[in-house]
């Protein structure tokens, strides 16, 4: 192996490329700690929640960036705010409920209270009791506001950043990723459900998995086992210039006429169909562009998924160096009719913790985590489709996984790797 | 709810747990009516009226497909469940349709092939029961888990 050219905490990268990944990157506690500083609190936009979770002035919603607890609010002016969910007095969690409505946020410990913009409004017994005690004269409430984040909304997705160095969201995403988000979230959303999948692995293993188009037809055999001819003749990967975001898509070959395949993009000829109830896969081309699958990631923790009519956002929330929570929010649109809602509910069987084509993803990261236990010296190999991280018109590639490491190493080491 | 119906419901519940816990999974869909509904949700979503289910089916065919996918397609480590549930409590009796809605509490313990055992799920079943000939079938079973969190994956139905 070549000389060690970069070292961050206990992690030794064998080269300046992103084709060999040291396993210690998934197990090293110091690395995990450093990720909080360089990535989650670095020049990134972290997905927090859907704007639809904050429907009214006074709505609040609890989220996380890395392990840091965050509150998102819609203040009485209707503006979005985000701040650390931690009282500026003694550090207690401020908001104890997951979501709700409030006019202000009051800490249960000593009743310091904050408005929905995160400003300190009230300090209990600030003037003392019977002229005894109380805060010193020079105490200024304005010095003790909540730790505020930059917050931005894009197509109904709410992002927060600790850093002034993160560019505006559209620049951060790049034009191709931006337009692919707009494509999916094209009108007012309706939430149809939630769940959270506990992943017993480092957060990066899941994010890589979501970017990894190589494994899709190998690990997930639902479509092939049931001989469902997907007719998806075309597809590809888009990686943004930073490497951190990607889109993987497949679509019906536009040279096939609509008369032949109609709207039922994935239904096979009936004689080879082996499902007892094929209505599971009766989808409609709601975007009118023949794209049957689009998996999109935004660095460092968002997956936006459209698989036929099953649409969901997945938030990747690290909970320790080797555990992660994957927060699923299943969505439709406000103007969905009953038939469309039922279609989405049926197709949601494909995804989530019990998903026909995704349940394996909940386990495979843990297979890696267990496989690399006790290993400090070895590396994994990410060479499918080359050594760089560019967009490619095919899906048997790991280009977007390399893109992840390009962005990751850029932030962690301050030098763009050779990719 | 007369004694005979209560007896049939008790049998159905026992068959349900036994089918899953003994891995006689092909028997599971047969405990539902042809248009039987099944959904795994959580108390937060259920209380807010969200319709989504981690598993969602509105036909026995969909339930059969769930089992054949588990047998033939999906990849998951060998594991088994142990159901413990309590007696069904009457919610409503619809004399006209001949259906009875009951609820019961459950816990499911999951044991992996490695020997690791954990409390996997707890919650409430809300069941609409239909009586056919001399047996009871689920017209609908809603599995309302107490927690929104599912460890690793939900392969075998709850």
Structure description:
The complex is a heterodimer of chains A (419) and B (158). By secondary structure, chain A is α+β, with helices and mostly antiparallel strands. Chain A has ten helices and 21 strands. In chain A, α4 (203-211) crosses α9 (359-371). Chain B has 158 residues and is α+β, with helices and mostly antiparallel strands. Chain B has helices at residues 3-21, 43-47, 60-72, and strands at residues 32-42, 56-57, 79-85, 89-94, 99-112, 117-132, 135-145, 149-151. In chain B, strands 1, 2, 3, 4, 5, 6 and 7 form a seven-stranded mixed sheet that branches. Classes of the chains: A alpha+beta (419), B alpha+beta (158). β14 (189-199) of chain A pairs parallel with β8 (149-151) of chain B, so a sheet runs across the interface. Chain B: Keywords: Aromatic hydrocarbons catabolism, Dioxygenase, Oxidoreductase. Chain B: It comes from Marinobacterium zhoushanense. Chain B: Belongs to the bacterial ring-hydroxylating dioxygenase beta subunit family.
Q: What is the helical fraction of chain A, as a range of percent? A: 10-25%
**Roughly what fraction of the amino acids of chain B lie in strands?**
35-45%
Structure summary, number of beta strands of chain B: 8
CATH class of chain B: Alpha Beta
The termini of chain B sit apart by 26 Å
Tally of contiguous helical segments of chain A: 10
Number of domains of chain B: 1
**Oligomer category:** heterodimer
């Amino acid at each position: 192996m070549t000389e060690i050219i970069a070292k961050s905490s206990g992690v030794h990268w064998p080269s300046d490329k992103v084709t060999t990944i040291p396993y210690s990157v998934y197990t090293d506690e110091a690395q995990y700690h450093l990720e909080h500083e360089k990535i989650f609190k670095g020049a990134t936009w972290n997905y927090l929640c859907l704007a639809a979770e904050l429907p009214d002035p006074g709505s609040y919603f609890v989220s996380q960036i890395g392990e840091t607890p965050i509150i998102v609010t819609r203040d009485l002016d209707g503006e979005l705010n985000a701040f650390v969910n931690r009282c500026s007095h003694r550090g207690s969690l401020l908001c104890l409920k997951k979501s709700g409505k409030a006019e202000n946020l009051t800490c249960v410990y000593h009743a310091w209270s904050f408005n929905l913009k995160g400003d300190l409004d009230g300090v209990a017994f600030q003037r003392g009791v019977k002229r005894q005690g109380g805060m010193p004269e020079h105490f200024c409430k304005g010095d003790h506001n909540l730790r505020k984040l930059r917050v931005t909304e894009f197509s109904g997705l709410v992002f927060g950043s600790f850093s002034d160095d993160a560019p505006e969201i559209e620049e951060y995403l790049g034009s191709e990723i931006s337009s692919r988000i707009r494509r999916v979230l094209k009108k007012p959303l309706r939430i149809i459900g939630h769940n959270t999948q506990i992943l017993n692995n480092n957060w990066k293993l899941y994010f890589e998995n979501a970017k990894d188009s190589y494994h899709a037809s190998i690990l997930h055999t639902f479509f092939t086992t049931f001989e469902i001819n997907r007719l998806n003749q075309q597809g590809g990967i888009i990686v943004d210039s930073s490497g951190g975001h990607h889109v993987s898509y497949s679509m019906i070959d536009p040279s096939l006429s609509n008369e032949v395949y109609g709207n039922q993009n994935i239904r096979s000829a009936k004689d080879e169909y082996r499902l007892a109830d094929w209505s599971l896969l009766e989808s409609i081309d709601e975007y009118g562009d023949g794209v049957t699958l689009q998996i999109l990631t935004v660095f460092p923790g968002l997956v936006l998924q459209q698989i036929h009519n099953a649409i969901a956002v997945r938030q990747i929330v690290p909970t320790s160096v080797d555990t992660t929570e994957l927060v699923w929010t299943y969505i439709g649109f406000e103007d969905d009719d009953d038939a469309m809602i039922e279609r989405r509910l049926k197709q949601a069987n494909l995804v989530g913790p019990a998903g026909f084509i995704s349940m394996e993803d909940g386990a495979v990261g843990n297979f890696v985590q267990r496989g690399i236990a006790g290993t400090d010296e070895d590396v994994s190999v990410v060479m499918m489709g080359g050594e760089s991280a560019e967009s490619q018109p095919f899906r048997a590639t790991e280009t977007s996984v390399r893109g992840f490491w390009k962005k990751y190493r850029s932030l962690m080491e301050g030098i763009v790797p050779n990719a | 709810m007369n004694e005979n119906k209560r007896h049939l419901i008790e049998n159905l519940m026992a068959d349900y747990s036994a089918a899953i816990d003994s891995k006689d999974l092909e028997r599971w869909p047969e405990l539902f009516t042809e248009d039987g509904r099944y959904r795994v949700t959580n108390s937060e979503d259920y209380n807010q009226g969200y319709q989504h289910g981690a598993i969602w089916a509105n036909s026995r065919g969909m339930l059969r497909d769930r089992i054949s996918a588990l047998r033939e397609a999906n990849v998951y480590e060998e594991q088994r469940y142990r159901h413990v549930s309590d007696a069904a409590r009457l919610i409503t009796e619809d004399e006209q349709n001949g259906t009875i809605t009951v609820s019961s509490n459950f816990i499911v313990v999951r044991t992996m092939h490695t020997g690791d055992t954990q409390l996997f799920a707890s919650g409430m079943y809300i069941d609409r029961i239909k009586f056919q000939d001399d047996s009871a079938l689920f017209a609908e079973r809603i599995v309302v888990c107490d927690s929104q969190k599912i460890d690793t994956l939900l392969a075998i139905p709850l």
